[in-house]
Amino acid sequence: MEGVSASGDPVFRGAARADASGRAPAADPPAVLEIACDESGSEGEKLVGGNTDVFTHASVSLDVDDAAGCMREIRRRAPSPALEYKANILLRDKHRSALVWLLGPSGPLRDRTHVHLIDKAFFAVGRLAGLLTGSAVRPAGAGPRPGRRSGEAEAVARALYREGPGVFGPGGWPVLLESFNDLVRARDPREAAEHAEAFSRVVETARVDGARGRAGEIVELLWEARSRAGSFRALLSAGPATAPALDPLIPAIVRTVAHWGAGGRPVSIVHDMQTTLTAERIAQLREMPFVGGLTGLRLVDSRSDPRVQVADVLAGAARKIASEELNGRGDAELTALLRPYVDASSTWGDERSWSLLGPVADPAARPRP
């Protein structure tokens, strides 16, 4: 009989027939869905003070021929002599109509693609909130910890993200986040001590200025957390197979598999080459309790697989559109066109831009830190 895959495509599963004993055999297991993925905005664990403020992970459910046809049509509508076609070509003003076509309802991507967005600053704030509440000591990508502490960490993250710029000032807020980011990334005690000192100076200034209410409570939590920050990376990165503590790629893949594997369907991934995706980390991903489960993850050169090329172009376009919206420079038409592809569980803290980027199907859904 016919079923429907996570992408909306029909899937033949074969009707179960009774054997000679009259017992119906077990139904055939669902076919493995192979999806192609790529990211944009990756700077490893550098979340604050880098070249990009948004990380995107795009996945597509297209066969090779359809993906190749999609890339040919993109090149026809937005020509370029470049051997490797990238999103920045499609994002040029003169090629706007091609981008509108690609993302629009008449294009080839509707119901066949998925985009996970990560506001890097909010991702860092979420990790910092985990330090404050003692809840974020799980391997990166293992999902939220159930129970009270998980909810407490999320509440602290949202309050800190919302009130932090006002409490620490336009100069102190980015210094606080960047010093925490660099502290967790530190590779030796001397480097860690330098970043810990910068972190402490910003917090001490806010204490002296006398922040009140919830903001004041968070400042005190930050002050108390100074002595724990040095060991936070070790807690986040427990185990040799665990992904780097602040790298958003593994959590994005977790969400991607959960999306396409909804309903129990097994998922296999073809992904552009990434140094983060070592054999040990891929093995760890396969052991995580996904819905449906990850059956395999294969790394390829994006130029060799048109499906990954489509995911690459989509990820790059989505990152630019989302970043512009986050910074108050959004293009209303492009934001609206991106919206149907966005994962409701994206990591996003800014409520204004999320109200425009987040899926409309579930207005109550809020992205987690």
Short characterization:
This protein is an alpha/beta fold. It has helices spanning 64-77, 87-90, 96-103, 120-133, 148-185, 189-209, 213-224, 226-236, 249-260, 279-287, 306-326, 332-338, 351-357; strands spanning 2-4, 10-12, 33-40, 54-60, 113-119, 267-272, 294-300.
Structure, explained:
The structure is a single chain. The protein has 13 helices and 7 strands. The strands form 2 sheets. Strands 5-4-3-6-7 form a 5-stranded mixed β-sheet. It has helices at residues 64-77, 87-90, 96-103, 120-133, 148-185, 189-209, 213-224, 226-236, 249-260, 279-287, 306-326, 332-338, 351-357; strands at residues 2-4, 10-12, 33-40, 54-60, 113-119, 267-272, 294-300. Helix 4 crosses helix 5 (148-185), helix 5 packs across helix 6 and helix 5 (148-185) packs across helix 8. Strand 6 (267-272), helix 10 (279-287) and strand 7 form a beta-alpha-beta unit. It is an alpha/beta fold. The radius of gyration is 22 Å and the shape is globular. Mean pLDDT is 81; it is low at 1-19, 136-148 and 235-243. It has one domain (31-360).
Helical content, roughly? Answer: 40-55%
Average of pLDDT = 81
Number of domains: 1
Order of helices and strands: EEEEHHHEHHHHHHEHEHHH
Number of strands: 7
Relative strand content? 5-15%
Shape: globular
Number of helices: 13
C-alpha end-to-end distance: 41 Å
Q: Which parts are unreliable, with pLDDT below 50 for 5 consecutive residues or more?
A: 1-19, 136-148, 235-243
Q: Strand pairing plus helix content: what structural class?
A: alpha/beta
Q: Main sheet, how many strands, which sense, barrel? A: 5 strands, mixed
Spatial extent as radius of gyration: 22 Å
Output the strand order for the largest sheet. Answer: 5-4-3-6-7
